[in-house]
C-alpha cells in the first residue's frame, strides 16, 4: 500500500471506532501535534483519538493530497452538540508502511471556550 492508501484506511478505521486497526497503522513512536496536545507514542495518540471519537458525529473528507510519503487530508468534522463542526487540515508522514507523524490544524477557539471553566469556578 502507498502512503495515501494507508492514511485512507487509518481515517476510515477512526470513523468506525476501530481502534485496533487505527493502532496497527501507527509507528510505535508516532509524533502527533495538534492545537491542544503533542503526543509521542502510538498508545497515547490512540487514546486521544478514542476521546475525540466519543464526540464525533461524522466526518466528511473534502480532499486528499499525496506527495510521496506525505498525505494531507482536508475534512469537516461534525461533532456532537454543543461542539461545533470544524474544518480540519491533517498532514501525515508515512514511513515503512506506518504513520510516523500526524499534524492537525483547526480553529480551536470554539473548543477552548467550551472547555474553559465557568466564571467563579476554580479548578
From TrEMBL:
Coiled coil: none annotated. It comes from the Bacteria. Signal peptide: none annotated. It comes from Nannocystis punicea. Pfam families: SnoaL_2. InterPro entries: NTF2-like_dom_sf, SnoaL-like. This is Nuclear transport factor 2 family protein. Residues 9-100 form the SnoaL-like domain.
Amino acid at each position: 500500500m502507498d502512503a495515501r492508501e494507508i492514511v485512507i484506511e487509518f481515517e476510515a478505521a477512526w470513523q468506525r471506532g476501530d481502534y485496533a486497526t487505527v493502532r496497527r497503522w501507527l509507528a510505535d513512536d508516532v509524533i502527533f501535534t495538534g492545537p491542544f496536545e503533542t503526543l509521542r507514542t502510538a498508545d497515547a495518540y490512540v487514546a486521544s483519538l478514542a476521546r475525540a471519537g466519543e464526540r464525533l458525529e461524522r466526518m466528511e473528507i473534502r480532499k486528499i493530497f499525496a506527495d510521496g510519503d506525505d498525505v494531507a487530508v482536508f475534512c469537516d468534522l461534525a461533532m456532537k452538540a454543543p461542539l461545533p463542526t470544524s474544518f480540519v487540515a491533517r498532514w501525515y508522514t508515512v514511513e515503512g508502511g506506518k504513520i510516523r507523524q500526524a499534524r492537525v490544524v483547526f480553529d480551536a477557539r470554539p473548543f477552548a471556550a467550551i472547555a474553559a471553566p465557568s466564571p467563579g469556578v476554580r479548578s
